[in-house]
Specification:
heterodimer, A: 114 residues, alpha+beta, three-stranded antiparallel sheet, 4 helices, 12% strand, B: 252 residues, mainly alpha, two-stranded parallel sheet, 12 helices, rod-shaped
Chain lengths: 114, 252
Amino acid sequence: MSEPFHENWATQLRKGLLELSILNALCGRRLYGYELVKRLGEIDSLVVSEGTIYPILSRLRSEQYLKTSIEESSGGPPRKYYELTDRGRAQLRRMNAHWQQLQDAIEHLRKERR
Amino acid sequence: MTFTEDAQRRLDSYLAAMRSSMRGTSIDSTDIERDIREHIESALAEYEVVDTEDLDPVLARLGAPEAWISDCELPAWRRIMRRVQHGPEEWRLPYLAFAATLLGLMLIPVGIGIVFILGAFILARAAVEEIGAERLGSRRWLVYSPIALVMAFFGLLAIVGPVPGIIAWMFQEPSEVHQFIQGDSPRILAGLVAAAFGAWWIVLSIVLAIAYRPVRFVFSPLTLRWRRAHAAIIAACGVVVSAIGAAALFAF
């Protein structure tokens, strides 16, 4: 019984954190889709299916948090590079602050228990 | 980079499934198709010829073609269909149970409706076991209806029991009955019916008191609060109705 509960919880958590992770991965650098997927894939259990990243990128772009530019590459197909817009940077600051608040609150609860 | 015929077919079918899942939404599938192609070509950049053996793991890591669109971007009816087709058992079973109930209710005039309702009952019970009664949440609206319908049917059957048969026998064989009770006035007939029902409910209460665990399990979660004490209420009703029946037969 506890395994489906944990799975469900982990999925919800992952969904919420993917957007934050993508914005942070793009902070101060330009990455193309595959490169970003690989970078996020290095974080254990964050990316279950690589296809989930692209719809999020598309949504973040339509929210104008990201902008894209297509560039030819020497050893492969033309690449779509993603980078943060000013709006995206501002949003990332808010999200990081919120995340920090949550982390501190949870840490506080854990310490209280001890 | 070139794809073998099989690999190209595999990729085309993946892209077609993705495009089909985007139909009816505001999302531009061309953009997503571009992302998929770029991803595959980047992942397999070192291959000159790509076979299905090379392509399949990349597609598997990308996930199902229908997963490129998230639930919140789909129209409501597509969300329901997706949950039924691909959703976890936790949602699929309740939706199927509810659909079978609706179908069963519509087909009752034709006669096979009851089969669908019984099927819906089994699906709903499977859903309750899979999810757990306490975690049903809004899914309870999907699973309660078939369980309630079947429980109401068997409940009615249990309340009526063999009484109509006994009464019919009394009317068919009046001489047998008249050996014990004189007269066939409406009071006597009403007394017979009341006594028969009362006696049956006492028997029923004993059966339910003994088998309260199976009853609670079969119609869970609607009967989770069923206790032996509830059988005593049925027994009390039986005693009261029997007493009324006996009074009507013998007291006047």
